[in-house]
C-alpha cells in the first residue's frame, strides 16, 4: 500500500466556525446515522453531534499515542473492574474548547445544546466511589499529559436502574448501549484468547529444566473497544480499552454436524455472559464464580495487550518495570500478579527469581476498604478448578514469602498464619489482599486516616516487614466535571472574580479567601447557590412530581446505602426534628429540605429496608400539615453520576456521617464541599483532611473518633443504655418500632430495631445520636446568620484545592509510578511517517 498522504485531507477537523460545525453535524446525520433533518429524532442529533466531536478528538488521540511511542516513556496502566464515567459529550466539548461554537451551530439548526446533552445515557460501568475514582483518575492523567491507559470490561449492563415500587427499591436492567455508543471504537482485530479450567502438564526440556503448560482449557475471546479520554485544554487524548467477551468459535462445528445446533448456540451464549453485567457492590457476600471469571478475563486480555505493546518496542523482559507500571484498583484485578508470573515462567521460560523481581516491581495496589469482611478471598477449590496453574503459582509465591518471614521471625506460627496468602481456617481460601500486598511495590490507602489504619491494623504485619511499602495517596475529584461542568452558576462567578485557571490548578481557589467577608461577593455566591437550588427544584418537579422550595436549607446525603454510612442515623435525626416541630419546641428551626439518594445492592436486605424506611418516614412527614412548612424529605431515586451533577451544586449541607474508621475516604464529601456545602461529618476518611483545610469553625464535626469507637467496642458497648437514657432517641426508635411510619404493617422494621438495640448496634448509630443532634443545632444556628453561613460556604470552596484529582494523580506519578508528563505539540497532520501501529 502506498504511503498515506496527510495533505490529501481537505481539512483537519479543528475549525470552530459554527457554519462549518453545522455542516459537519448535517453530514454526520446523513452519512453516519442515515437520517435527514426531517426524519431525525432528538437522539439522532445527539449521536450526530457526538460523532462530530469525536472526529475532533481522533487526530489528537493518534498523535498522542505516536508521541508516547516516540518518547519511549514509561506507561501507566490502570486496571479496574469499574469505570463510572457518566456522560461524555459535554466533558469532551469543554475539554477541547468547542462548546460555545457547537451551541451556536445547534441554535442555527433550531436545537438546544442543553437539551441534547441531557439525552445522553450515563456510562455507568461502576458501583460508586471506587468506579468514579477510576474515572476521575483517567481525567486527571489525560489533563496532566501523562501516558496512561485504563483497562476494564465493556459490560453490556452497567449499574442497574433503581426504581421505587411501594416505597421499595426495585432494580431494572439498564442497557446503556441500546441507542448506540458513539464514543467507542470496536477493534475486531484486537482479540486475545482467554483460558479457563483444564489442567497443568509438567515437562522437562533438553537441559533438564522443569516447565509447566496449561492445557485442555476452555477458550473465550476478548475483543477490544476503545474510548478516547481527552484531557482538559491539552492536546493529549488517552485511551480507555474495555474488553468484550466473544465465543471462540461462533459454531462449534463438531456439535453442529452432529445436529446439536442448540448446544452450540448455548455455549456461545455462555461464553459471552462474561461481559454481560456489572456485579453490584455487595462487599460482604461475594464469591460468585462468574465474578472471578470476569476478573481473570479482563486481566489476561490486558496483560497480553500490554506485553504485545512492550515487545513491539523493547527486547528484554527485564526492562518491563522500567517501562511499565500497573495500578491495581483494589484487589479485583490482583489475579494479574500470578498471571504475569505465569507468562514470564511458562511462556518466556524465565527463572522464578527473575520473573518475581519483574512482577513485584511492576504492580501497585490501591486498597479501598478496612472492613475485614469486605477483603476479597476465593476458595482454593474454585481457583484450582478455574485457574489451576495460577493456583500453583500462588502456592509457590506464598511458600517463598513465608520462608523469608521465617528467617526474620523464627517460630512465630501466628505471624505466619496472618501473613499467609492462604487462609487455612475451614475450607481453604486465597486472600487476595495478601497476594496484592506481597506482589506489589507500593500499596496505598486513600486518605491519611485510612492509610494509618492500614499500617496499624489491616496490614500491620506487612508494614513491620517493609515500612516503605504502604503510602498514603488521598483521593481527589476532577474539578472539570464536579465544578466547571456541574455548576455553571458558581463557575461563572469564579471566572469573573479569580479567572479560569482553577480548572487546571485548583489551588487557585485560595484566592477566594480574600472575598469571604465581602458582603457583595457573599450575596453573589449565595445567589448562585439559590439558582442551583431552583434548578434542582425544577428537575424534581419535572421528573418526580415533587415540589421542593429553593428558599429552604438543602440538606443532602447521597451515596450508596450501607449500614456503615449510617443513613439510619440521618433518619433518626429527621424523626427528631419532626417530633420537635409537632411539639412546638422548634421555633428556630430553619425550614429544611432533606434529600437522600443512593442505591442498595439487590441482595443487601437491610439496605433495602433502610430505603423503604426513608420513604415511609418521608410520606408521613410530607403529608403532615404540622411539619410541612418546615420540613420536607425526599428520596431521590436512581442516584447516578448525572443526578449527582444536578444535586451536588444545590446542597447547603453535606451529610458525611459514617462510623469513624469505616469510610476509607469518601469522595462525595469533596464534591459537596467544593460546591460550597458545609459538611456535617464524623472524623472519618477524608473528612478529617477536609476539616483541616476548611477550618474547624466551617465544619460541623461530631461523634466518636476511630480510636474511641475501637475502645468502646473492646469495653463492651451496650446500645440499650442510649435507648433507655435518651428520651428523644427512645421516642424516635419507638415510633419506628410501633409502626408509626408503617401503619399497615407495624412489624415492618423489626429487623432494624433488632440490629440497633438487641444485636449490639455494630455501627454505633445510637452512640453518636446525641452528638449528631447537637451538631445539627449548631448548623441550624449558623444558617440563621446569612452572612456567617455565606462566609463559611465560600471558605469551603476556597479550601478545596488539594482535593483535586490532579493532586492525587501527581502524587501517584511521583510516589508510585515514576512516570513523567509527555506534552506534545499540535500536529495538523493526520499521519506522520512512522511504522508503528499507532497505539
Ligand atoms: C466485591 C465482590 C463482589 C462483587 C462486587 C464487589 C465490590 C464492588 C465494588 C466491592 C467493593 C466495591 C466498591 C468499593 C468502593 O467503592 N469503595 C469506596 O472507594 C472510594 C474510592 O477510594 C472511597 O472513597 C470510599 O470510602 C470507599 O468505600
In the CATH hierarchy, the third-tier topology of the domain at 479-705 and 765-800 is known as Rossmann fold
Strand order of the largest sheet: 7-10-11-4-1-12-13-17-18
Name the hetero compounds present: ligand 26Q
First-to-last CA distance? 20 Å
CATH H-level superfamily title of the domain at 479-705 and 765-800 = Glycogen Phosphorylase B
Tell me, briefly, the overall form: globular
| Low-pLDDT regions | 830-835
Biggest β-sheet strands, sense, barrel: 9 strands, mixed
Alpha-beta classification: alpha/beta
Share of helix among residues?
Answer: 40-55%
Beta-strand percent range: 15-25%
How many DSSP-defined strands? 24
- CATH class value of the domain at 479-705 and 765-800: Alpha Beta
- Output mean pLDDT: 94
Please, how many helices?
A: 33
Q: Rg, please?
A: 28 Å
GO molecular function: glycogen phosphorylase activity; pyridoxal phosphate binding
InterPro entries: Glycg_phsphrylas, Glyco_trans_35, Pyridoxal_P_attach_site
Keywords: Carbohydrate metabolism, Glycogen metabolism, Glycosyltransferase, Pyridoxal phosphate, Transferase
Family: Belongs to the glycogen phosphorylase family.
